[in-house]
């Protein structure tokens, strides 16, 4: 007998970690050991599991009933004696073949490898001497060429044979390839269709295609295993088993089988469904300003939020793609809006508005609304627009709308199937390593990170959780190597994208902490987790944070003595969010402490207060080094600074009864350090000004002394000039 306790509410982690002296193995889904899987405890039992007898007879196999022929005299089972029939053993075991589509995918990949090798060295390519090998290569190439011809033929026929619902309404036709849409959530389709059928079906329930103006748009949408399309796929398989070769596969044009029933009035998108608000032509910055803003974006924002691919983006701008493609033009305007925040050029201001808070608004206002219709399939540009819009809005007085836009972006990404591993996406396995595919992966991780930070900041539920996606980490390869034949980071060259990958891993832990420690409905959480589950979760989170810290490469470990540079600034941002995560994990026990009057102050010596205070002080020292260096970070990085100030305020207030005023003043100086850093951002970000006002209001409540200090313009001098260094593990040295 086994007792199983389901930790259903806690997501899986990507770590194998040790806590409390016992080893917990993580589930395949990803980060946090004990809470991510079912806990199973074996208990003694007198009941013995029955052994399965081998070599069932033909009758029992067909009836799928238990056969005891292996233990009966002359191997004649009880069932055959009862039915008075011969007990025979003529039906052999069926060998399972490879997964359907596996051989085709391997074949396609091998042919691609041959083609790539020949094209790479056309003059020096060594032709194999073995004639059998050469013959096989020629056959593979011939089959591949024939397959491509069939595919092109089907596309042409689909494009030329589309109908129109009426003379007044030329429509966009949506084609459903019933037998060709892959169950993207399934590990294998288990289909019995032949290779020729599979080739004709083009990938098994994979695509809904939008055909506009006689040309096919290859945008595809994701449908998971719970969808009706997958159930329809099962029905088709059953029919195939019944009819066998008599079954004719339906097609959209009547070729190769019966014509697929598709009444145009139900399958077409009408003009009024696609109608957009009449928009004025996009207005871009003048060329010199445009170049300056694009350069500023890739210098100050891309290293921390690597959403775009710089070489291809700049090439597209230089070729004027933004003048021909409104969606790419909208992406470019969003880039200009974000970069305008650190520009001194008055052309970025709203005409007639002297306030710097209007920086970038002339460019951003043209991107609204983001999408006026959702009838069309989404694209990579839509994702990038959502990410860039969130980046811009988080610094404005409308920062709350960032949370909404991020949720919209995640829904769009899920519509595109980007929450799945690359090989499970609708785009197909041959596009795994394309530039577009990797940019989609990056965009989804950017949205996930924004989702965690904004949800924690606003105290709202996330748009998704780690059980809902299984995509890979971004590829650890810098932009300049992407367009090589084999895009890989050269050995020994530190990657700038490593920061983002470790940042994503850290925020996955933070997302787990939010769901485990800050559930909306605590009664359900306690019911499934049992007594003391919060403390267990904190232990697991601490263990995961230690594992994460040890995995950070040397060039991204914080060292205050390191010369200022990109990796130094990235390490500062990374360690700041690490300390913020610690404060969020242990700060859970500072938020609700029941007392006689509804709340009691935590003890200054309590483990929770000690851990939070140490993390806050370490964070201040990192912040102060960056303040002296005048490092420029995206506005999202002031969130940990604000939390640090709040924790330090709590520490100073809890010590008023037990410690001397000099010790309290020292901690208040650290609080004012945080205020000083936030004030450097409020010059251009309204969000920073709001946080600054909140902190000063809290400090000044009933304490005129601190109010006066907070209003002192020279308060930055109160910050310690000589910060204590942090070693590579992030502890005080």
Automatic annotation (TrEMBL):
InterPro entries on file: AtrR-like, XnlR_reg_dom, Zn2-C6_fun-type_DNA-bd_sf, Zn2Cys6_DnaBD
Segments forming a coiled coil: none
UniProtKB keywords: Membrane, Metal-binding, Nucleus, Transmembrane, Transmembrane helix
Annotated TM spans: 633-653
Amino acid composition bias (Polar residues), ranges on this chain: 724-733
CDD domains the record matches: fungal_TF_MHR (cd12148), GAL4 (cd00067)
Any GO MF annotation of the entry: DNA binding
An annotated GO BP: DNA-templated transcription
Keyword DNA repair among record annotations: no
UniProt-recorded name of the protein: Fungal-specific transcription factor domain-containing protein
Organism of derivation: Lentinula lateritia
């Amino acid at each position: 007998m086994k007792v199983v306790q389901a930790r259903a509410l806690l997501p899986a982690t990507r770590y194998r970690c040790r806590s409390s002296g016992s080893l917990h193995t993580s589930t395949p889904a990803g980060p946090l050991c004990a809470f991510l899987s079912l806990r199973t405890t074996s208990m003694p039992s007198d009941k013995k599991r029955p052994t399965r007898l081998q070599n069932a007879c033909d009758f029992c196999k067909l009836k799928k009933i238990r056969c005891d022929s292996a233990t009966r005299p002359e191997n004649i089972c009880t069932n055959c004696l009862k039915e008075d029939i011969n007990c025979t053993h003529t039906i052999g075991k069926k060998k399972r073949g490879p997964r359907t589509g596996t051989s085709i995918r391997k074949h396609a990949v091998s042919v691609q490898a041959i083609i790539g090798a020949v094209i790479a060295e056309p003059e020096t390519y060594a032709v194999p001497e073995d004639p059998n090998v050469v013959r096989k290569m020629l056959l593979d190439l011939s089959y591949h060429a024939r397959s491509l011809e069939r595919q092109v033929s089907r596309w042409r026929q689909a494009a030329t044979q589309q109908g129109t619902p009426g003379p007044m309404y030329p429509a966009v036709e949506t084609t459903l390839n019933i037998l060709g849409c892959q169950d993207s959530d399934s590990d294998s389709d288990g289909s019995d269709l032949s290779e020729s059928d599979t080739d004709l079906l083009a990938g098994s329930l994979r695509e809904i295609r939008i055909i506009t103006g006689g040309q096919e748009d290859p945008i595809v949408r994701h449908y998971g295993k719970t969808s009706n399309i997958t159930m329809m796929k099962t029905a088709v398989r059953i029919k195939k088993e019944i009819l066998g070769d008599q079954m004719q596969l339906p097609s959209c044009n009547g070729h190769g089988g019966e014509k697929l029933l598709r009444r145009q009035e139900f399958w077409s998108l009408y003009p009024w469904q696609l109608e957009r608000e009449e928009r004025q032509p996009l207005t871009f910055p003048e060329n010199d300003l445009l170049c300056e803003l694009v350069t500023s974006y890739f210098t100050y924002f891309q290293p921390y939020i690597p959403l775009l691919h710089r070489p291809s983006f700049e090439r597209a701008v230089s070729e004027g793609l933004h003048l021909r493609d409104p969606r790419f033009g909208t992406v470019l305007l969003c880039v200009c809006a974000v970069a305008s925040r650190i520009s001194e050029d008055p052309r970025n201001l709203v005409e007639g508005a002297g306030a710097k808070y209007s920086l970038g608004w002339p460019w951003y206002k043209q991107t609204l609304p983001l999408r006026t219709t959702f009838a069309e399939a989404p694209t990579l540009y839509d994702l990038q627009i959502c990410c860039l819009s969130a980046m811009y809005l988080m610094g404005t007085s409308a920062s709350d709308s960032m949370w909404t836009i991020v949720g919209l972006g995640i829904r769009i990404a899920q519509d595109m199937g980007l929450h799945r591993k690359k090989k499970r996406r609708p785009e197909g396995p041959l596009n795994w390593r394309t530039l577009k595919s990797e940019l989609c992966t990056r965009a989804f991780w950017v949205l996930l990170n924004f989702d965690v930070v904004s949800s924690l900041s606003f105290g709202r539920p996330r748009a998704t959780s780690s059980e809902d996606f299984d995509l890979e980490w971004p590829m650890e390869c810098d932009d300049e190597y992407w367009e090589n034949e084999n895009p890989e980071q050269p050995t020994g060259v530190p990657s700038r994208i490593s920061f983002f990958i470790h940042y994503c891993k850290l925020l996955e832990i933070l997302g787990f902490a939010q769901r485990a420690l800050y559930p909306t409905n605590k009664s359900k959480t306690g019911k499934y987790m049992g007594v003391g589950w919060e403390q267990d979760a904190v232990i697991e989170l601490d263990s995961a944070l230690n594992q994460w810290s040890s995995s950070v490469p040397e060039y991204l470990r914080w060292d205050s003595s390191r010369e200022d540079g990109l990796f130094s600034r990235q390490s500062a941002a990374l360690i700041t969010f690490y300390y913020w995560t610690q404060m969020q994990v242990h700060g859970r026990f500072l938020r609700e402490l029941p007392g006689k009057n509804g709340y009691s102050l935590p003890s200054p010596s309590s483990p929770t207060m000690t851990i939070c205070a140490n993390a806050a002080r370490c964070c201040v020292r990192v912040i102060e080094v960056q303040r002296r260096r005048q490092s420029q970070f995206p506005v999202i990085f002031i969130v940990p600074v604000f939390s640090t100030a709040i924790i330090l305020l709590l520490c100073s207030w809890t010590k008023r009864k037990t410690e001397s005023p000099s010790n309290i003043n020292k901690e208040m100086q650290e609080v004012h350090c945080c205020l000083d850093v936030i004030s450097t951002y409020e010059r251009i970000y309204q969000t920073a000004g709001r946080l600054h006002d909140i902190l000063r209001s809290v400090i000044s409540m009933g304490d005129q002394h601190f109010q006066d200090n907070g209003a002192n313009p020279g308060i930055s001098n109160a910050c310690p000039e000589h910060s204590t260094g942090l070693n590579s593990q992030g502890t005080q040295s």
